[in-house]
Amino acid sequence: MKYIIVGLGNFGGHLAARLTSYGHEVIGIDASEAKVEAVKDKITHAIVMDATDAQAVKNLPCKEADAVIIAIGEDFGASIMVTAIFKQLNIKRLISRSINKIHETVIQAIGVDEVLHPEEDSAERMAKSLQMKGVIDSLDVSDDYNIIEVKTPKRYVGLTISETKIRQDYHINILTVIKMVEKPNIFGVKSKKKKVTGVVTPDTVVEEGDILLLFGHINDIQSILKLED
C-alpha cells in the first residue's frame, strides 16, 4: 500500500518508518530539513516541502495514496491548513492528528475520515497498566471491552486453558499465550523478546512467566486481577 505522511516529528517519523518496515511505500513530508534528514534512510521517500503550499501538494501522487496522515503535532494553524488542502484533493482516506479538543472540532468539520490521539491514547494505556495489577498493555475495543496483556496469575500456572475455567467463571477469553524468549541482537547481547504461541487450544498449558492476552469486559478483567492481591 502507499501512504503519504505529513509531519516527520516523533510520531510521524516513527509511523513512517514502521509502515516502511512492513513493506509499504511511504512518502514522508516535512518543512524541516533536519527532520527529513533524520528519517530519509528509514522510509521510501523523504521530501522537504511546505505542505501549506497547495500548488506543491498537487504534485504529490495523492490519488494513488491509500491514505494520507497529517501528523503535524504543534502548529495548530499549519495542521488545519494542510488538512483542508488535502481534503480538497479527494483523498481516499484522510487521517489527521488531534492537537487539542478545539483542533479536533475544526478538523472534523473539514471532514477527515479519522482523528488520531497519540498522546491521549498512550496516556490511557499507561494509566490502565498502572492501575490494574499485572497488566502490561491494553487496547480499548469499546468503552466497556478491552484486550489486555497480563502476567499469568500464579493460580493458573501449570493448568491447561480448559482447566483455568476463565471463560466459564469470568466470561473472559484467552486469545493467545505470549512467551518471553531470549534472543541475541546484532551485537550478540541477549534480550527478551515476545513470542506469540498462536491460536491456543483447550489443552494448551500455561507456564510460569507466560503472558496471557485476554479479551473481556473491563469489570470482569478487573475482578480476575484483584484475586492476585
UniProtKB/TrEMBL annotation:
Example of a GO biological process term: monoatomic ion transmembrane transport
Sequence ranges assigned to domain RCK N-terminal in this UniProt record: 1-116
Top-level taxon in the UniProt lineage: Bacteria
Gene3D superfamilies, A to Z: NAD(P)-binding Rossmann-like Domain, Regulator of K+ conductance, C-terminal domain
Record flagged with keyword Cell wall biogenesis/degradation: no
Key words of the record: Ion channel, Ion transport, Transport
InterPro entries referenced in this protein's UniProt entry, alphabetically: NAD(P)-bd_dom_sf, RCK_C, RCK_C_sf, RCK_N, Trk_Ktr_HKT_K-transport
Domain RCK C-terminal: 148-229
Protein name: Potassium channel family protein
